[in-house]
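I'd like us to work through together how a protein chain folds, taking it slowly. We need material for that, and I hope you will provide a protein of your own picking. Go ahead whenever you are ready, and we will take it from there:
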Amino acid sequence: VQLVESGGGLAQPGGSLRLSCAASGFTFSSYTMSWARQAPGKGLEWVADIYATNSNTRYADSVKGRFTISRDNAKNTVYLQINILKPEDTALYYCVRGSGGWGTRGQGTQVTVSS
């Protein structure tokens, strides 16, 4: 199982970023995927799920309305669109095989929101 996140970086408050996660080594279309994040000095926080069977989604209250999770099963890739970035979104963002942020995860991509 390999999960490789990309798309992080430094962004200004109010801006947007699109994170990507390329998956390999398993049947991607059969798995619920999620994103989780870890801010400096804090624990892992689940952000969003996208289900395998119907691509239904669910979000943490802290990001609802600003984050959008999506997947492309043909490309074995899951995405996280982040809009209206806030300084409190600064964190290492992980792609996770599994729901609720529990499961095998990648190395993460850093998102830093600062003016």
In short: The longest strand covers residues 17-24.
